[in-house]
């Protein structure tokens, strides 16, 4: 199993190319199942989740033709139905995103129920309710979601999401492209990845309005056409490198990063003392000044992203003063706290809040990654720590960061990957 060995205490300086967003790529690969015409995706990040999703699409007969390191043509003309196996869904919860497209295209679908994961229970009830509002019948039999469409297919309807779930909004939007008539999705998630999926679906022939707002309208059914779509840059990867610059007291230019997708994150970093400014290529992050902790609460987009909470906590640990971190999206997303404590962080947990007492000098130690963002937070802490940090279970990190160690090394970090 791979580990990362980090010699901390080096200031980062240089440029990092931000990859396409994993969380935009995954639903778009699922969306390829909707259409008989080919979909060319550009900017696919080289991460294991994308490989897993492409592999899952292939099990349905999607032909994946790699035409470049980050480009693939997905041809679902001869795709057919099958059961999404528990093993794929267990490894990657986003596998459940094939449910809507399969149901809408083939009239039925069987997808393993994902179950909980390290960060929370993560039910899929909102996905199921959204499909039911379009006329589907849904059951769970022996851990498998069994979904069926009435004779005549899905019919457009009004979907009111109890909370603005990203995945449920994507499921609803994808299924609605094949429903007859208009679908309205209320209390929709407004994330850039939802907007990017809508843009991709529109390029494929769909008619969608309002993506990026709380009210999305989809007019179906779609006449599909060949499409090419460039995946939006990964705002979570960009935010992670912005924190890497800050935690090492360095400067990084993030090429491709879009400040408008990081508005609240930028505001938080600036109030800590980090300077951010747009450049021709993306975003410059200057973390050379003194930093002090700021309170944050994670919220659905455009709020502070839960996917940057762990990284922020590493930064708050070395910044001066205290910072209160409230996690409101997932009920169990503090698995990194005991590991940060092993490096010397002073964090008191109380329910869904964590009080970080900053100004700590971190010292390297062996630590264990528990999930994707927890792993990268430990890498960030390792970059700031004196001595050697060994991050175990790096496969979590490889799910969502393209060549993290190489990108950091190019900017002056001392990191090596070893197989132990
Ligand atoms: C592949 C992908 O895009 N993953 C992102 C997506 O996950 P994901 O789409 O799973 O996240 P959701 O927005 O759906 O989840 C938000 C909250 O709603 C709850 N919920 C969700 C669905 C449902 O049917 N019932 C329910 O109760 C979840 O348990 C969670 O507490 O958005 C999350 C929130 O920004 C990010 O952390 C993930 O990185
Ligand atoms: C939680 C994440 O991903 P997923 O929803 O695929 O588990 C993440 O990207 O941080």
UniProtKB/TrEMBL annotation:
Subcellular location: Cytoplasm
Reaction(s) this enzyme catalyzes, per UniProt: phosphoenolpyruvate + UDP-N-acetyl-alpha-D-glucosamine = UDP-N-acetyl-3-O-(1-carboxyvinyl)-alpha-D-glucosamine + phosphate
Enzyme class: transferase
InterPro entries: Enolpyruvate_Tfrase_dom, Enolpyruvate_Tfrase_sf, MurA_subfamily, RNA3'P_cycl/enolpyr_Trfase_a/b, UDP_GlcNAc_COvinyl_MurA
Pathway where it operates: Cell wall biogenesis; peptidoglycan biosynthesis
Binding site for UDP-N-acetyl-alpha-D-glucosamine: 93, 122-126, 307, 329
UniProt binding sites for phosphoenolpyruvate: 22-23
PTM-bearing positions, type 2-(S-cysteinyl)pyruvic acid O-phosphothioketal: 117
Main location as per UniProt: cytoplasm
Membrane-spanning ranges: none
GO molecular function (one): UDP-N-acetylglucosamine 1-carboxyvinyltransferase activity
Pfam families: EPSP_synthase
Domain Enolpyruvate transferase residue range list: 7-408
Coiled-coil features, chain-numbered ranges: none
Name the record gives this protein: UDP-N-acetylglucosamine 1-carboxyvinyltransferase
Organism for this UniProt entry: Salinarimonas ramus
Species lineage: Bacteria, Pseudomonadati, Pseudomonadota, Alphaproteobacteria, Hyphomicrobiales
């Amino acid at each position: 199993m791979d580990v990362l060995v980090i010699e901390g205490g080096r200031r980062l300086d240089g440029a990092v190319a931000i990859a396409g967003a994993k969380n935009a790529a995954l639903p778009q690969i699922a969306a390829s199942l909707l259409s008989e015409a080919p979909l060319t995706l550009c900017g696919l990040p080289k991460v294991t989740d994308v490989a897993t999703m492409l592999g899952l699409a292939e099990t349905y007969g999607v032909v994946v033709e790699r035409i470049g390191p980050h480009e693939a043509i997905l041809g679902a003309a001869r795709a057919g139905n099958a059961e999404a196996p528990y093993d794929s869904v267990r490894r990657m919860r986003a596998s459940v995103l094939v449910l809507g497209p399969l149901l809408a295209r083939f009239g039925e679908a069987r997808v393993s129920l994902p179950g909980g994961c390290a960060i929370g229970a993560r039910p899929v009830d909102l996905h199921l309710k959204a499909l039911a509002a379009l006329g589907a019948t849904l059951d769970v039999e022996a851990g498998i979601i069994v979904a069926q469409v009435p004779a005549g297919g899905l019919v457009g309807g009004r979907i009111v999401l109890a909370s603005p779930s990203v995945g449920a909004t994507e499921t609803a939007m994808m299924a609605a492209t094949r429903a007859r008539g208009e679908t309205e999705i209320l209390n929709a998630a407004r994330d850039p990845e939802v907007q990017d999926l809508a843009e991709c679906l529109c390029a494929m022939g769909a008619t969608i309005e309002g993506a990026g707002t709380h009210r999305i309208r989809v007019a179906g059914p779609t006449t599909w056409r060949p499409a090419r779509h460039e995946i939006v840059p990964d705002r979570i990867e960009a935010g992670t490198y912005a924190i890497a610059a800050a935690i090492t007291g360095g400067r990084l230019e993030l090429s491709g990063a879009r400040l408008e997708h990081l508005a609240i994150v930028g505001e938080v970093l600036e109030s800590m003392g980090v300077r951010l400014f747009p450049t021709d290529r993306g975003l410059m992050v200057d973390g050379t000044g003194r930093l002090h902790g700021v309170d944050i609460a994670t919220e659905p987009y455009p709020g502070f992203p839960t996917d940057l909470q762990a990284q922020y906590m590493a930064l708050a640990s070395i910044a001066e003063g205290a910072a209160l971190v409230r996690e409101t999206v997932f009920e169990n997303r503090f698995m990194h706290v005991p590991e940060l404590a092993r490096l010397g962080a002073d964090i008191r947990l109380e329910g869904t809040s964590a009080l970080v007492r900053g100004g700590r000098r971190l010292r390297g130690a062996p630590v264990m990654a528990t999930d994707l963002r927890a792993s990268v937070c430990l890498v960030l802490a390792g970059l700031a720590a004196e001595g050697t940090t060994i991050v175990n279970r790096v496969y979590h990190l490889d799910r969502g960061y393209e060549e993290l160690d190489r990108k950091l090394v190019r900017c002056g970090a001392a990191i090596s990957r070893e197989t132990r």
